Amino acid sequence: MTDTKKNLVGLSRDELKAEMVIAGEKPFRAKQVWHWVYHQGETDFAKMTTLSKDAREKLAQNYVVARPQVAENLLSEDKSRKWLLRLDDGNEVEMVFIPEDDRGAVCVSSQVGCTLTCKFCNTGTQRLVRNLSCEEIVGQFMIARDTYGEWPTPTGERLLSNIVLMGMGEPLYNAEEVVKAMKIVMDGEGIALSKRRITLSTAGVVPEIIRCGEELGVNLAVSLHAANDALRNQIMPINKKYPLDQLMDACRNYPGANNARRITFEYVMLKDINDSLDDAKELVKLIEGLPCKFNLIPFNGWPGVAYECSSGNAMHRFSNYLNDAGYSAPIRVSRGRDIMAACGQLKSESERKRKAS
Asked: How far is it, in rounded angstroms, from Cα 40 to Cα 226?
């Protein structure tokens, strides 16, 4: 908890310089503090030894270097990890780490709850409470680094190699804070994660897609889930505001998209809803000429939901058709089921327990 002291996490370089002046220090101190906060991961001003003792004492009196509180930290049998994070106002969000052999992706949230109401998404059943601040977004990745001991910033291989903005919320409905946070994460003198290691996922907030590409240049993933407006309107109401023709235009104009950096289309497999060969054929026509790939996601249900996961045969038939058409379309392997790693599950369970107590 930050109490009345200002948190330095989440401040841009210019904002950090301004705070140094307010604290009675020279602006150059900001570069030193930036190094300690974002490269070393240090939270104790007393250990920031390149600063004078007087400067360290003044900063400690007025500032903190704080992350959100870890309410739960669960490790799956498959080594996936899920954190439930409690914010200063008592709200909770989730973050997930999905490891591969020698690397892995940290799935970061951008909102408490979600702006959208996608019918197949558990987080979409949770009302939007508020956007996350830059410090709360950056703080998530810093917690992951705390957990895995990846401070100071590794110069070579790193386990926490990627960020995916695919957690709770729609990142582009919180574009200001997300863009600011990712610029901090990408800064070469701090966390130093390449833009090629960051993927932003959107349900299709068309006006912000191009801006994201121009300002960040990160990888783009689009939650598609349907190949025509009629079905997408039904399962993803955002499509009524930004229909598929607009969304595809934004994807085709996304800066930097090419065969080496293809756009990813996320596609959840819903039994008898969007998993037929006709759906696959319509999908290929929709994305014709786009440098893209697919991520086919087995639907992960919850009590009371109206949808079921497609059969294995249906998913493989769908995947094979896309592969034969020249598109990579792997079926995602579900991870972390034993720790409720699907988006929104852990937060829902936490709220249920609190209401019952």
From this structure: 44
